[in-house]
Amino acid sequence: MEDVKLGIIEKLKAIYDQLKPAERKIARYIINYPDDVIHHSISELSELAKVGEATISRISRKLGYKGFQALKIELAKELSSISFEETKTNSVISEVIESLNKLSKIINENEIEQIAKKVVESNKIFFFGVGSSGVVAEYGALLFTRSGFFANYYNDPHMQVISAAGMDNKTVVFGISSSGNIRDTVKSMKVAKDSKAFTVAITGGYESKITEVVDKTLYIPPAGLERGMPKISPIVSQISILHMIFEEVLSLKKEAIEIIKKANTTLKTKKYLSKNEKI
C-alpha cells in the first residue's frame, strides 16, 4: 500500500473487502470518525471501536505504517490539508436539507417536552462543547439568556469541570458533541451529573461515551466523515434541537415571551433605523 498515492481513508475503502471482520470494525470507525481518532490513544480507540489493540496495530501496518501512532500523525496531516474546492454550494444545501429530513424522523417530542420542563424548573442552564460544538453551545446560552434565564456556556474544558463541580439538582447542562466521544466533553458531563445536575447530550454518536454519562440523549443524524473541517449538517441539527426545546419552554413559561419583547425593544437603540443616520 505504500506506493499507492491515496489518503488513509481512501486506502481503507480500497482494501475494506479484503479485511477480516475485526479489521473491518476498526476501518469503519476510522472512516466515520477520523477527527476523533487522532485524539485517542490505542487503548481508548480499542474500547470505542470494540476491537483488540493488536487489531489496530495490524491494520496500521497493512496501511504502510509502523504502528498506530504513525498512522495518527499522518491522518492528522491529511485532515489539515483539505481542498476547499471539494465543497460546492449545492452540495452544502443538499446536505443540510437531508440532515433536517432525517432529524424530523428521529426526534422524540416527548423527550423534548420533558427536557423543557426541567429547564423551566431550573435556576441555571449551562452549555458545554468544544470546537464547532462550542459555537452551538454559545448560541444556546444566548438563546436562553434572551428569554430571562441564567444561562452560560463554556468551551474551555477546565472551566467546564470547575463549573460542573459546583452544580446542584436545580441546574440543567447540555453537552454538545457531534461524535459523542470527545474526552473533555464526556468528562465534564460526568462531573455535572455526579453533582446532581440534570444532564442532556445532543449528539450524532449512537452508543457513544457521552450517552453513558447523561440523563437524556437527543440524537442528530450522524455526520460521518468530516475530512478535516466541521460539517454544517450537525451544527444545523444541534441548533434546531435547541430551538425545539426553546419553543417548548416558551409555551410553558409565558413570562419569558414578555422578557424577549422587552429585550427586543432595548436592542432597537443599537440599530440604524434610517438610511439618513450617520455612522
What is the residue-mean pLDDT, rounded to a whole number?
88
Give the CATH H-level superfamily of the largest domain.
Glucose-6-phosphate isomerase like protein, domain 1
| Contiguous runs where pLDDT drops below 50 for at least 5 residues | none
Per CATH, the architecture of the largest domain is 3-Layer(aba) Sandwich
State the helical fraction: 55-70%
Protein structure class: alpha/beta
Task: Please identify the top-level CATH class of the largest domain.
Answer: Alpha Beta
Number of strands: 5
Number of domains: 2
Order of helices and strands: HHHHHHHHEHEHEHEEHH
Helix segment tally: 13
Which overall shape is indicated by the principal axes computed on the Cα atoms?
globular
How much strand?
5-15%
CATH topology of the largest domain: Rossmann fold
- End-to-end CA span: 61 Å
The order of strands across the largest sheet is: 2-1-3-4-5
Using only C-alpha atoms, the radius of gyration works out to: 21 Å
Q: Let me know the largest β-sheet.
A: 5 strands, parallel
Structure description:
The chain has 279 residues and is an alpha/beta fold. The mean pLDDT is 88. The protein is built from 13 helices and five strands. It has two domains: 8-79, Arc Repressor Mutant, subunit A; 89-269, 3-Layer(aba) Sandwich (Rossmann fold). The protein has helices at 8-15, 21-32, 34-37, 42-49, 53-62, 68-79, 89-106, 109-121, 132-145, 157-165, 183-194, 232-252, 255-267, and strands at residues 124-128, 151-154, 171-177, 198-203, 216-219. Strands 2-1-3-4-5 form a five-stranded parallel β-sheet, with helices on both faces. α7 crosses α12, α9 runs parallel beside α12 and α10 (157-165) runs parallel beside α11 (183-194).
